[in-house]
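Exercise 4. Each item below gives a protein and its sequence. For each, produce the structure-token representation.

Item: Porin (Zhongshania aquimaris).
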Amino acid sequence: MMRYSYRKYCRPAVVFLAALIGSSLSCADENTDLQFHGFLSQGYLLSDGNNFYGNSLRGSTDYREAGINSTWRASPTLNFAGQIISRDAGNTDNGDVKVDFLFADIKTFESDASGLGFRLGRVRNAFGLYNDTRDVLFTRPTILMPQAVYFEGNGFRELFFASDGIQLYSYWDSDENSTNFNFTLGRDKSLSADILRNLFGASASLVHKAEFKTPIFMQLLHSRNGGDSKFAFSMLNVHLDLHSNSSFFSDLTLDASGYVFSAQKNLATWTFTAEYSLLSTEFRTSLGNEVNEIESAYLQAQYRIRPEFTLTSRYEYIVLDRDNRSETDGHHLVFGARWTPSPSWIVDIDVYGIRGQSGIPGVDNVDNMPISERTEIFSVMIGYRF
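Answer:
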């Protein structure tokens, strides 16, 4: 498989997307096929027990997201989409401007009831119900994504959200039902120092090079009665090659594969969501192999008091090692309130109660070791979009 330079890929992409957005400013009124949108959100977190996204034990504003995206319908069968983002999340993300996604969408077949196409570039991975829309506060259920499935606090967003490669998609519609299929085959890419630090903490210094090999993501999503009910099966398969600085260790490899079952029911004033995940990992070193299974699930209820006011509650259960369930389990309890005074503005207030160490960003707690088994978080986030 061909290797590539991230800088060579990223720099032209930024220029292209900037030109696309700049063109949209001057052409938006003349050409409705060219659109741009943006978002900005700022959070505040105050915690007890452990830090979460900055020094939240004293109160942290080190959680913000800003992005600009654009779409261009070049022809009935060819579309382009891209997004530039800056995300600051404590020590797990440093706020650098990055190309979040950038792809060409080529539709090869379309009828009244079905369609088939593929996307080329940096494509969003369909995984679970929220992964491919997790970048905007408006499309997340709470300020922090459900830890049980999306590894929010572990700083893995860069690995899960998008892949450089090709994505095949298809859909079938019948009456009030719809079925969607996505399959993504990613290219090899080198992991940044930030990702290595999120993955391995202080041990990241032993790795001088790491490669993310041919990630695969797949999802089958079925909606009934116009979206009143949703069911999905998602899977992933990834491989990491780690090249060590130490002569004591040979090169290391990490294989991970897993799946997620998702279900959602939308009623007039209630939405119920449940997801179950099982992730298997195999870590190979010169000293032997270590196999582990991570099991997790959550149940979430959202109640709309009025169209602009929503209350959310969620219970998450995480087991970091199924063979050692009693000592590696974690429990998260979440309560939240959301106010959307207008389509452009949103205010979220959430309270998190975390028992166990799952989801706690170790890189934010280097000076706060050992990690406490109890964490409470009060968070507020204000978001704007256009």
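Check: The longest strand covers residues 288-306.
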